[in-house]
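Quick start: what a row looks like.
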Amino acid sequence: MPSPCIDCLQYANWSEKVFQQMRAGGVDAVHVTITYHETFRETVANIATWNRYFEQFPDLIMHGREATDIRRAQETGRTAIFFGSQNPSCMEDDIGLVEVLHTLGLRFMQLTYNNQSLLATGCYEAEDTGLTRMGRAVVAEMNRVGLVIDMSHSSERSTLEAIEASTRPITITHANPANWHPALRNKSDAVLKSLAESGGMLGFSLYPHHLANGSECSLEDFCAMVARTADLMGVDRLGIGSDLCQDQHDSVVSWMRNGRWTKNTDHGEGSAAMAGFPPQPQWFRDNRDFSNIAEGLADVGMSQSEIDGILGGNWLDFFTDNFAAPAASEPEAGPVFGKRSATA
């Protein structure tokens, strides 16, 4: 079976049109953001909405829970949808909800979305205090159940501490190297090296605020950056997390940035950020354009096996190792209350 095409972050305005474009582009799996600032109950309502999509479009999409679902999607000509949260709001202040959310299908959770959370410091905070006490407890619980830690919107210290504290590899699903474009959301060489050394994954973002020269970023410049990052991290630690926000109304930017935490406008990644979604680069407008990235990577000298890995094979390996709870012989498999009570 050919290597899959996997996008490890999208937040589209979901519709049959988008699902059809996924199939036209040969996209076999997508990690979709199902929640930002929603509470647990609101997140469950969003899952119910996705369940209706799976009912309405069974020939186009399916719910992905395990890595093997990607191969099943390939065999049946569908796209496997994996749920993720861009903020820990969905677990509120209850560590018990981590396992519940995983049972409901959540496979990724960010410890922060730009701001300080109960778990860690976000990338827009002036003071970077790293993981909190609760953050370390939640990291251990996420490791136990097989919920992947995502530090895409987190600060430098928080990210390095999460890598160190986690017994399983973590991910940065959608960001780029800060040495290429110094957005607050992009990551330092120190973070990228530590991520790679721990077995973690970086998903390259195609969101214009994360690209050098924004919407005018060239395919050649993007692919040359990917090749340089492969030299830094190793090509098997790289994938795509496009951060595609297709067909979203501009008002959605306010929900992403402001949530319920402020009455004012958070300008985030620049004074123009709240004006709406910037146009995508012409070479990546939607799910039908992954072939352009493949061609661009070939043009900068990458082999077919390296391209296949970046476009999905590396994510498949990562999903295989990290979506399930550890084997029964491993220490993490014991009851969480028993494990922690000895040191409480």
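That is the whole record. The longest helix spans residues 304-322. The radius of gyration is 19 Å.
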